[in-house]
Amino acid sequence: MEEYTGIILxxxxxxxxxxxxxxxxxxxxxxxxxxxxxxxxxxxxxxTKVLNYVKVFVSGKNLxxxxxxxxxxxxxxxxxxxxxxxxxxxxxxLIYYFATHEHDHDKLLGFILKIIPEIKxxxxxxxxxxxxxxKLLYLLGVNPNLKTCLSCDETKELVFSVKxxxxxxxxxxxxxxxxxxxxxxxxxxxxxxxxxxxxIEINSRVLPxxxxxxxxxxxxxxxxxxxxxxxxxxxxxx
Length: 238
Ligand SMILES: [Zn+2]
Fold this sequence. Notes:
Layout: E1 2-14, E2 18-25, E3 28-34, E4 53-59, E5 64-73, H1 82-99, H2 105-121, H3 126-139, E6 145-149, E7 159-161, E8 166-168, H4 180-190, H5 207-222, H6 228-236
Parallel strand pairs: 3-5, 6-8
Antiparallel strand pairs: 1-2, 1-4, 2-3, 4-5, 7-8
Helix pairs in contact: 1-3, 1-6, 2-3, 3-5
């Protein structure tokens, strides 16, 4: 038997009463068949929920089959309303999509485990999701340069260009850019250390602008957009 610990990112129905869960572990994504998990009397009925942090014991070569399991952290209460549900879905979809790419899964999993309690506990959870989206850019190797002008190394009063993935000073303004206020907020989130502090100081006024920056960045540099994003727009208006 093999043992894995990870976060459930997705589940699909398998035959009538079973499910396959996709677990994000230190080694990346693995699929595990859970026999009879949809039956009311199944001991795994509460296990197979998206975002639960679980330890599983599996056997089987091609298809891993669950033999035993325990829930380390039940995260089903993370969702309190439709907006949060959709935002969390957007985040989970993003992690799942890039889980099959080669990057530092250890680091990302560690970060997800730190960010989930924050999202769970807060009404103002959106900046924490942004934080994950920004830090993932670094892991995917398309990290933005947020500190110096690309043309002259100036470090003050900079603005940000998505296409260049970089800052510029007022003497080298690109055609299209995000303001210094948005850049400073993005910088705070990108370099945020959850070990040191948990309070984010960002004016809610800039949240729609950061959303726009992230959407454009993922679209331009990774050709990615989540399915949940469209629904989110209908709910939050941007
Ligand atoms: Zn410059």
